[in-house]
């Protein structure tokens, strides 16, 4: 019940006009307005009775968009809290590239079995799959606020236990103990994917949502970089001790792995005190229970127009992670193959220091720049064009590396390094970022976290296949060449399924829900 704007005459002579305030009851809007002119006796009383209509979805969309756009400071704070968590995730997930060679050196005389090495590298990825499904469902059922922060507690607990691992009983070596605790860490890391994506998306306005979500995910690159830098720092600290006793490396890998607890502890309080997402809260306030049942979920996504989007987000992430984790989890092997790390010659310090340098250099050359180009362009170009471009570029680059692997390695190492670095660049200026962003946008609030968790878990299924299928084959020159060729074919499949997903650039979450979830009465009714 807002009063009408004054007319030009009223603005010019306000002293000549008076109005009684409008009165409003619960069901109708009644206005009684009396106007009098001081010079000429005019009296007019107008009665208006207009029913108050319930707010439409368009009005809700506008209201939420205004709220989220107005508080840009809180949007940035939310993204920062999510980003630090993602830094921790990436650091904990990929620091294994440095730790496993050290564990192999100290406890297995540089001769670990493929099974032991596969479990130490892969159980965190398997745990990630579990966490993505579990926390994705919980966030939709219980609310984002009640769950956010629990994943960091798991990461902290699992990391501390992993760094204190030993061989407690006969028949259970240190590799088994590390694998168990890395599984716990992985569950926490997995939980962060749907939670951070959903919370960042739901707190963001449509004009900067892509940039903020990409910025959160880009902290994965900083995590990779810090894994190398922290390794270099602790190796330098223990240099004299390692030169006197190479087995002092046992302390180094524990400090390197344990460092992942520091950023997790720094951001834990802020996650535990994060308010509920405005989109989720809006459903609760309107009396639309946001908790969807399994029957409703299946009823919705069995319709092709909606199901194809979930298939597209899941399969594109699945195909991406087969190649991405197949390369990054075996990056130390690839670095050694291209000469960035020498074979062990008796000098433990030089060997591991050079290995850490190689990981750091490769991250700076390709992985890190790709993230920030995507952050800059994702709200300008759109998600789908970047994903298509990335899959095309990766298909070509990995095919070239595979076909000419031996010639490049033996006769043109510089060209090999350039091609490899450009491939890493297009992973991140391409599907590695967009497969994270899109599932956080295209699904309705009731299903958003669950559907993102399913998409992310599909990716980690691909990562598990990569970790356990290609580990031993990557140790031979011909085997590595074949594997990279397989990755090129997988990228082609990723390109094909990308066409199942819609473009989300410049659209609010409510608008996207209208398009893909509330477009017909049958679908709307099934969700009510």
Descriptive account of the structure:
The structure is a single chain. This protein is mainly α and 528 residues long. Helix content is 72%, strand content 3%. It contains 25 helices and 3 strands. The protein has helices at residues 8-12, 57-70, 72-94, 96-107, 114-142, 144-147, 150-163, 174-202, 209-237, 239-244, 249-258, 261-272, 278-285, 294-301, 304-328, 331-337, 348-381, 383-403, 405-411, 413-428, 431-437, 448-469, 477-498, 509-516, 521-527, and strands at 23-24, 28-35, 44-51. The protein has a 3-stranded antiparallel beta sheet with strand order 1-2-3, with no helix packed on it. The longest helix has 34 residues, at 348-381. The protein is globular, with a radius of gyration of 28 Å.
- Principal-axes geometry comes out as globular
Strand content: under 5%
| Uncertain residue segments | 12-55, 515-528
Main sheet: strand order:
1-2-3
Descriptive keywords:
single chain, 528 residues, mainly alpha, 25 helices, disordered C terminus
Sequence-ordered SSE layout with sheet pairings:
Elements: H1 8-12, E1 23-24, E2 28-35, E3 44-51, H2 57-70, H3 72-94, H4 96-107, H5 114-142, H6 144-147, H7 150-163, H8 174-202, H9 209-237, H10 239-244, H11 249-258, H12 261-272, H13 278-285, H14 294-301, H15 304-328, H16 331-337, H17 348-381, H18 383-403, H19 405-411, H20 413-428, H21 431-437, H22 448-469, H23 477-498, H24 509-516, H25 521-527
Antiparallel strand pairs: 1-2, 2-3
Helix pairs in contact: 3-8, 3-9, 3-12, 4-11, 4-17, 5-8, 5-22, 7-8, 7-11, 7-12, 8-9, 8-22, 9-11, 9-17, 9-21, 15-21, 15-22, 15-23, 16-17, 17-18, 17-20, 18-20, 18-21, 18-23, 19-20
């Amino acid at each position: 019940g807002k009063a009408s704007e004054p007319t030009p005459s009223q603005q010019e002579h306000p002293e000549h006009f008076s109005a009684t305030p409008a009165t409003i009851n619960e069901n109708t809007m009644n206005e009684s307005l009396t106007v009098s002119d001081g010079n000429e006796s005019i009296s007019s009383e107008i009665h208006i009775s207009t029913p108050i209509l319930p707010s439409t979805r368009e009005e809700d969309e506008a209201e939420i968009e205004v709220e989220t756009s107005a508080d840009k400071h809180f949007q940035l704070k939310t993204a920062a809290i999510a980003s630090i968590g993602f830094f921790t995730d990436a650091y904990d997930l990929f620091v294994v590239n440095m730790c496993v060679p050290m564990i192999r050196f100290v406890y297995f005389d540089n001769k670990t079995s493929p099974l032991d090495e596969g479990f130490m590298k892969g159980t965190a990825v398997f745990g990630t799959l579990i966490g993505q499904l579990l926390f994705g469902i919980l966030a939709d059922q219980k609310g984002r606020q009640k769950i956010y922060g629990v994943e960091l507690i798991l990461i902290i607990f699992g990391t501390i236990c992993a760094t204190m691992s030993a061989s407690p009983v006969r028949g259970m070596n240190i590799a088994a103990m590390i694998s168990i605790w890395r599984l716990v860490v992985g569950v926490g890391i997995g939980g962060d994917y749907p939670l951070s994506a959903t919370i960042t998306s739901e707190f963001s306005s449509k004009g900067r949502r892509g940039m903020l979500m990409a910025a959160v995910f880009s902290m994965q690159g900083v995590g990779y970089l810090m894994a190398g830098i922290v390794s270099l720092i602790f190796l330098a600290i223990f240099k004299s001790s390692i030169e006197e006793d190479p087995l002092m490396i046992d302390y180094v890998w524990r400090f390197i792995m344990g460092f992942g607890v520091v950023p997790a502890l720094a951001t834990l309080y802020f996650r535990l005190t994060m308010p509920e997402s405005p989109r989720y809260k809006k459903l609760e306030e309107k009396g639309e229970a946001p908790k969807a049942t399994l029957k409703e979920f299946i009823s919705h996504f069995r319709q092709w127009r909606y199901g194809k989007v979930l298939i597209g987000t899941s399969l594109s992430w699945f195909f991406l992670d087969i190649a991405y984790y197949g390369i990054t989890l075996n990056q130390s092997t690839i670095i050694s193959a291209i000469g960035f790390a020498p074979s062990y010659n008796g000098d433990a310090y030089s060997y591991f220091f050079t290995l850490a340098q190689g990981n750091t250099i490769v991250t700076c050359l390709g992985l890190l720049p790709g993230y920030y180009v995507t952050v800059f362009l994702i709200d300008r170009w759109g998600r789908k064009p970047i994903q298509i471009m990335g899959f095309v570029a990766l298909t070509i680059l990995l095919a070239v590396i595979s076909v000419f692997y031996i010639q490049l390695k033996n006769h043109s190492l510089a060209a090999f390094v350039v091609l490899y670095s450009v491939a890493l660049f297009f992973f991140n200026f391409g599907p590695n970022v967009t497969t994270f962003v899109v599932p956080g946008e295209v699904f309705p609030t009731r299903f958003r976290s669950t559907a993102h968790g399913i998409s992310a878990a599909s990716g980690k299924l691909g990562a598990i296949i990569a970790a356990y299928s290609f580990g031993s084959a990557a140790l031979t020159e011909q085997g590595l060449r074949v594997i990279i060729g397989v990755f090129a074919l997988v990228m082609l499949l990723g390109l094909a399924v990308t066409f199942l997903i819609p473009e989300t650039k410049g659209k609010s979450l409510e608008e996207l829900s209208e398009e893909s979830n509330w477009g017909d009465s049958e679908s709307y009714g099934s969700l009510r």
